[in-house]
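Anyone opening a protein record will find just a pair of labelled lines. With that in mind, the following record should read easily:
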Amino acid sequence: MFKTRIDLTVRQATADDVPALLPVLAQAFSTGTVAEWAVPEPADRLDVFTGYFQFMLTLGLRHGRVDTTDDLTGAAIWYRRDETPPPHPDHLYGLEEATGPYAPKFLLLDAMFEARHPRLPHAYLAYIGVNPALQSRGVGSALLAHAHKALDAENLPAYLEASNPRNRNLYARHGYDAGPPMQPTSSGPPFWPMWRGQLNGGVRSSFLPPNPYYRRPR
């Protein structure tokens, strides 16, 4: 069983919350194998991910939904996706500007995720992060449970990419099924596409077949 903090209130974030949420997401994502691959220079990692999430929070507030906890210790950025991705003409330029000399790897990840993305209506969990000092205490599960309650009321599926086995196992406990891993390069970190299907007769549908337009890098 996963632990969900019942003492936390989850609400929709606003622009006023960005100064508090930015360091939470930057610190949560600037460690681990993905961060080491994307930004090989350790001294640059926190600055790069701070710029990256400044941009991603702006996009999330503008085009999606950002959830946070009442104590601002965690955040999740969600989007609604239809059969085709929504056009964001400023996305690639903003991503390059935010990540500077490390942009090629961030753009490679972005292209890989888009190529593998399911082509049917669903909710997309683009990012979820918790203050590193408070991880493994149910904050992430509270954010997930809040979103899933609304999605289940619509019987809408959800999709995400897990960046390590620990997170993959957490999402599995919340009803997600993992597909075959994908890598941006042969030496890059693996990511697991994960699908939380609709309920049919009390049984949740299993993971989608691979996107026919996706080809794994050689």
Residues 212-218 have pLDDT under 50 and may be disordered. The chain has one domain: 10-204. The first helix runs from residue 18 to 29. Residues 10-204 form a domain with the Aminopeptidase fold (CATH 3.40.630.30).
